[in-house]
Design a protein that fits this description.
Blueprint: E1 8-16, E2 20-25, E3 28-33, E4 49-54, E5 64-71, E6 74-77, H1 80-92, E7 104-110, E8 116-123, E9 126-135, E10 137-138, E11 143-146, H2 152-166, E12 170-177, E13 184-187, H3 193-205, E14 208-216, E15 221-226, E16 228-230
Parallel strand pairs: 9-12, 11-13, 12-14, 13-16
Antiparallel strand pairs: 1-2, 1-4, 2-3, 4-5, 5-6, 7-8, 8-9, 10-11, 14-15
Helix pairs in contact: 2-3
Length: 232
């Protein structure tokens, strides 16, 4: 996925009210939209280098959107709305080894009245549901983690993926690691023990778990490497 415009470099001052970030660009301070309502644990230190996407839409009050934060020498893609677009690009360009050569790729497909998954793939006679989780947490130099806060919604998705298996779908959950230089991925058990337990139940039930790292720059973000998943 290429950015539609050149990103502007700045320094993070603070994030507040979930949707707002103050950023210093040169001698000017601007307020940018934060497209990530999660905790963004470990990323919000004052002075961190950030990259903003400018916009000229007269309907939007904020003229910048936060796209990337540089934390501990690693670029991190923080726009959660980009995650599905990155994965869709990966599916259409055969960048995900386990999910190549699909006959069709449909985004945002309802499984039942309450839940829709990020993608429905069709390959020959097999129907495959794919759910995507954006990963921005890292607490050591080479291991990405999810979640960065307790996630009841994430647990619900795991149980629904299990239900889909019972109805003859194949299911995958992709942890999209938008962090440079990561080698491994694991569930942050200390942050959400219930999610970890449900992950193990889902894995035993046949849900396929993948972790893929992105190549990140101020020009584009795309999937480039599979990571080993570590189970504690």
């Amino acid at each position: 996925m290429e950015f539609t415009k050149s990103l502007i470099k700045g320094k993070l001052i603070k994030r507040y009210k979930r949707f707002f970030t103050d950023v210093k660009i040169g001698k000017k301070i601007v307020t940018a939209h934060c497209p990530n309502t999660g905790s963004m644990k470990g990323l919000l230190d004052e002075g961190n280098q950030v990259y903003l996407l400018p916009n000229n839409d007269p309907k939007r009050k904020l003229k910048y959107g936060l796209e990337i934060i540089k934390s501990r020498k690693n670029l991190v893609g923080v726009n959660t709305h980009m995650a599905n677009r990155i994965v869709e690009h990966g599916l259409n360009n055969n960048l995900i080894n386990e999910l190549k050569n699909n006959d069709s790729v449909k985004p945002e497909v309802f499984f039942n009245k309450e839940t829709r998954f990020d993608f429905l793939l069709k390959k020959k006679k097999q129907k495959i549901f794919v759910e995507v989780k954006n990963v921005t947490l890292f607490r050591n130099k080479d291991t990405a983690e999810f979640p960065d806060a307790p996630t009841a919604r994430g647990i619900k998705h795991l149980f629904t993926l299990i239900d889909a298996i019972k109805k003859s779908y194949k299911t995958y959950l992709i942890f999209l690691v938008q962090i440079q230089n990561m080698k491994y991925f694991k569930i942050a058990r200390d942050i959400d023990e219930e999610y970890y337990k449900t992950y193990l139940i889902a894995k035993k039930a046949g849900v396929n778990f993948l972790a893929y790292r992105c190549d990140i720059s101020s020009k584009k973000i795309f999937i480039n490497k599979k990571l080993k998943i570590i189970d504690d």
